[in-house]
Specification:
Layout (H helix, E strand, L loop, with lengths): L11 H15 L7 H11 L6 H14 L2 H12 L8 H18 L1 H12 L4 H9 L10 H5 L7 H14 L4 H7 L6 H11 L8 H10 L3 H13 L3 H10 L4 E4 L2 E6 L1 H15 L3 H12 L8 H14 L5 H10 L2 H14 L5 H10 L2 H12 L7 H10 L2 H13 L3 H10 L5 H14 L5 H8 L4 H15 L7 H11 L26 E2 L2 E2 L4 E7 L16 H13 L6 E7 L4 E2 L5 E2 L2 H12 L9 H9 L6 E7 L25 H15 L2 E7 L4 H8 L5 E3 L4
Parallel strand pairs: 5-6, 5-9, 9-10, 10-11
Antiparallel strand pairs: 1-2, 3-4, 6-7, 6-8
């Protein structure tokens, strides 16, 4: 949760009330008889069934914008009006009353404002503090700071924000004093309020919230504040903020990072990435990249990442030194940073790193070479794409696609007929990325023998180049290309998504939820967690039943050439078969029987299920059928990730997706997600970052 949103749950009632007041002030349709309407609303208010209904009635009263309406709102604030007896509803009504009254009659609001400031409900007191500076007259700062003794943090947060808006000379000292407040939300609000002010910061006063505060939100707010008007001293302090984020497990090597530390480190990286070059580079490049800088290897690795994010050209030489001398993990960071910078001067250090490094180092070097602005050693890259192990060939083919020459395009055309399906898919993508006219003919030629995932990749590439929906048959593409080849020019812009091609009967594929699955090597993962067995809020249906029905129909229609597998994704995912199985009559019956015997699990471990699916090198497409988790789903008892039980051993969604990308970089699996219920940002990113698509089932 980002710092600026960290109190959204705490302040939700107050935000709703203030929004209601804003709506009231915006005006409503004209009422022909305001007195009669006011009587109706006064009678309806005590009978309101929900807090939202209470707010709606207060809105309507304020929209009348008459003296009588203002007096009735004043009586609500004073506690003399008839309102709901339920305490929560009554509190919301009084808070909405003072907020709405300020919007339509500030003099009346000023008269009853003292009642709201001492109201027994914290939401009313907080609302009164939040509107204080909208009333006429001078505000006594001592009366504002008295709220720092309030038993609830809600009025305290609003008092902090009020001092931040007032920006008097004394306000900053009053705010800084609250960095010792016992409530984390108040301490973070202090830093956010100071951020609105201009002028130099006293960094010494920020050391404690930055380094010692026990709450992550406060430390992140301090990072953002320091980065606002940073100088070189501030950059030094930010680098010192990096903390080791590994969380040991039973004395063993840590498997996932400490969530709080990881969040702080990511906030520092984002802050450093946004600083001006004249402020950050003298510290990051001039001092901190050197091995004798006094930094631990862990902190130096994060500095390397920051330099790469900044694309600092002056960092090429020190990064090249680290590429040869630092620890293995930091060498990979240095290679990635050189790729991010993209300067062709990095070519020779990266080739040397490739030659001397271990397997992961070679992959890192090739990935960085892909992102350089130009490349001279194309013949060496062609040799690597032919003679090294197939995983390295994949990356070398990507490099050739990023730096197209007649020789590299010729090599990519050859790769379209090599045996590992991953090599063929990589070659198609490289020809697509090359964006040269000469790439179209090899793609059309390869379409003739292609099936499943490979055919879909080729059609995507042809759509990119031609923006023409023809057929999945190479027999129809060949005469077209022969006719237009001479005068054809590559389009200036690419089109993101192609329409679905009309498939000949011989190429028809099975469908899930109306979507064709272009694969003959598919693994289907079915979420069996509790959310799949509960009724959906929007359709009042249990997702598991249609999911099982769809998968059963999908399996039944699979062609004999297709290989498939099923994984039941629960707390401990299990697969129907150890590997992909041919879709014979017997295997389809066995798979459907496995499907019907699944039992409900507490939660779904995506990490473990994807590990099983990606461990099979023959699977080119992974289909996940799941549901968005219910609001407030907890995983405290799961023993897994502190943020989301779906992430397994990983600390947060960003870290999970990074590690999944690393696992899938040679597997080349496409991940398609069908999701029941509301949209889910994690599931959408999971599909988008792995060449797939996210399909909300109930919207179809």
């Amino acid at each position: 949760m980002q710092p600026k949103n960290c109190y959204i749950l705490l302040l939700a009632p107050l935000a709703f009330i203030c929004l209601a007041a804003g709506i009231a002030a915006a005006g409503e349709p004209i009422v022909t008889n305001p007195e009669k309407e006011l009587r109706r609303l006064r009678d309806a208010l005590p009978r309101a069934k929900t807090e939202a209904a209470c707010n709606a009635i207060v809105n309507e009263i304020a929209a009348l914008n008459t003296a009588a309406a203002a007096e009735f709102l004043a009586s609500i604030v004073k506690g003399t009006a008839r309102i709901p007896k339920d305490a929560r509803k009554a509190n919301v009504v009084r808070a909405a009353g003072i907020a709405a009254l300020v919007s339509i009659n500030v003099q009346t609001a000023k008269r009853v404002h003292p009642y709201a400031l001492v109201d027994p409900a914290d939401v009313v007191r907080a609302t009164a503090v939040s509107v204080w500076d909208r009333l006429p007259g001078h505000i006594n700062l001592d009366r504002v700071t008295a709220f720092f003794n309030d038993e609830s943090p809600l009025p305290q947060v609003e008092a902090v924000r009020l001092l931040g808006r007032l920006q008097r000379k004394r306000c900053r000292e009053l705010l800084l004093a609250q960095l010792e407040n016992k409530h984390a939300e108040v301490r973070a609000a202090v830093l956010e309020s100071i951020m609105q002010w201009r002028g130099e910061l006293d960094l010494l006063k920020l050391r404690k919230p930055l380094f010692e505060d026990p709450d992550t939100r406060v430390r992140i707010a301090a990072v953002e504040l320091i980065a606002r008007d940073a100088d070189e001293d501030a950059v030094e302090m930010l680098v010192d903020t990096f903390v080791y984020d590994a969380q040991p497990q039973n004395g063993e090597k840590p498997e996932y990072p400490n969530l709080d530390a990881a969040r702080v480190n990511e906030a520092v990286l984002d802050a450093l990435a946004g600083l001006p070059a004249e402020v950050a580079d003298p510290v990051l490049v001039g001092k901190k990249l050197k091995r004798d800088s006094g930094l631990t290897a862990f902190r130096r690795g994060l500095v390397i990442r920051a330099v790469g994010m900044r694309r600092s050209n002056g960092a090429i030489e020190p990064l090249a030194v680290l590429l040869a001398e630092d620890k293995a993990e930091n060498q990979e960071f240095a290679a990635a940073a050189l790729g991010d910078i993209g300067d062709p001067l990095a070519e020779e250090p990266l080739f040397a790193y490739f030659k001397d490094g271990a397997f992961d180092s070679k992959l890192a070097a090739l990935d960085a070479l892909t992102r350089l602005k130009s490349l001279k050693r194309i013949p060496d890259m062609i040799r690597i794409s032919k003679t090294y192990r197939w995983e390295l060939k994949l990356f070398a083919i990507r490099v050739l696609g990023a730096h197209p020459t007649p020789e590299s395009i010729e090599r990519l055309a050859e790769a379209l007929s090599e045996k590992p399906w991953q090599i063929r898919v990589a070659a198609v993508r490289a020809l697509r990325a090359a964006w040269k006219k000469e790439c179209i003919e090899p793609l059309i030629k390869a379409l003739g023998d292609a099936s499943g995932r490979l055919r879909a990749e080729i059609l995507d590439a042809l759509w990119d180049y031609t923006q023409d929906v023809r057929s999945e048959s190479a027999a129809e593409w060949r005469p077209w290309w022969k006719r237009v080849k001479k005068n054809y020019t590559v389009p200036v812009a690419r089109v993101a998504t192609r329409p679905e091609f009309v498939a000949p009967k011989a190429y028809s594929e099975s469908k899930l939820f109306g979507r064709r699955i272009d694969s003959d090597r598919v693994t289907v993962i079915l979420d069996i967690s509790s959310s799949m067995w509960e009724k959906s809020a929007s359709s009042n249906a249990v997702p598991m039943k249609p999911a099982q029905k769809e998968i059963g129909a999908f399996i039944k229609k699979l062609s004999k050439r297709t290989q498939f597998n099923l994984i039941a994704m629960g707390k401990k995912p299990r697969s129907w078969c150890p590997h992909l199985a041919r879709a014979t009559a017997n295997s389809r019956v066995e798979a459907r029987a496995f499907l019907q015997k699944v039992d409900k699990a507490d939660y779904a471990d995506f990490d473990a299920a994807l590990d099983i699916a990606l461990s099979d090198p023959d699977s080119d497409t992974i289909v996940i059928i799941t549901s968005a988790p219910s609001a407030g789903a907890s995983n405290e008892s799961s023993g897994s990730s502190p943020e989301d039980p779906r992430l397994g051993r990983y600390a947060n969604k960003r870290y999970f997706l990074q590690k999944l990308h690393r696992r899938n970089r040679t597997a080349y699996a496409r991940i398609i997600v069908f999701c029941f219920g509301k949209k889910d940002s994690f599931l959408e990113a999971l599909a988008a970052e792995n060449s797939g698509m996210f399909v909300p089932v109930e919207e179809r």
